[in-house]
């Protein structure tokens, strides 16, 4: 609640600012490199900031640092320091009860709430060990539900972020952690080169939430599965990019399973592929963040196909903070139902 207190405090002083960005700015000033070693996304700053008093001397330092910060992070579009010393001193008293989790998700909670169950389900089913490299595409969705996710797995983790603001925060947080690599997802006009210049071959286990209305498209993408549906480009791109013996869990609109636009992708690229195995398709309850229609959770495995492969179909129903499987059936790859629906 401390960021809300800061926002209300400044509003009473007729100061309208982006509280999250200003909190990030102040955290980078007070959390010097030697204090970041044990910092995590949900640790309060009070654990690391020893002196929060904003003296005249400290205020002068902050103003000078502001110039460096604005130059280093131009995309944040911050200008001059909008606080007087006394105001800043009061803000620092409140900001000590803040964590990076608050800075990332303040005012955004409803955007991620609907995804909590599927994330809990995926993580509970995952078999991750220290020999596995984990890839998180649109990683902030996972950390909303699991702020301690990075400490849960003793493995290398690559995280991909489409939001510039979030990218800067994660780089600041984890740049000294040799087990975590942070990548910026590029997104341009025209055919958007989402994940441009990034290969996913290192991942053995990948979780992905392609954002609505966003394409992934490498220049050498297979022309045969290009589609007007952007999530299909996303899926094909990730599957092409994954290395052998990798697993992908991905959330897609349920239309992937039956509309004509996706039939080539389903039949030729997946069902007839020699090294892409569709393992599970589960319909989910409506998730508002994605679409007014239902979505489905799909699990793929990239490895040489065995002769008797099958696909598990079903629905996931809410079960406390996760899901349980209902209406489960298992079909062979050559089942006509898979190719005609």
Q: Could you outline the blueprint of secondary structure elements for this entry?
A:
Layout: H1 2-12, H2 19-30, H3 56-72, H4 85-95, H5 100-105, H6 109-113, H7 116-125, E1 133-137, H8 140-145, H9 149-152, E2 156-161, H10 164-174, E3 180-184, E4 205-208, H11 230-241, E5 246-253, H12 263-271, E6 276-283, E7 295-302, E8 310-319, E9 322-332, H13 336-340
Parallel strand pairs: 1-2, 1-4, 2-3, 4-5, 6-8
Antiparallel strand pairs: 5-7, 6-7, 8-9
Helix pairs in contact: 1-4
**If strands are numbered along the chain, what order do they take across the biggest sheet?**
3-2-1-4-5-7-6-8-9
**Architecture of the largest domain, CATH level 2?**
3-Layer(aba) Sandwich
- Secondary-structure class: alpha/beta
Outline the biggest β-sheet.
Answer: 9 strands, mixed
Q: Please, what is the average pLDDT? A: 78
CATH class of the largest domain: Alpha Beta
Shape: elongated
**What Rg, in angstroms, do the CA atoms define?**
23 Å
Helix content: 25-40%
Distance between the terminal alpha carbons, to the nearest Å? 49 Å
- Count of the separate structural domains: 2
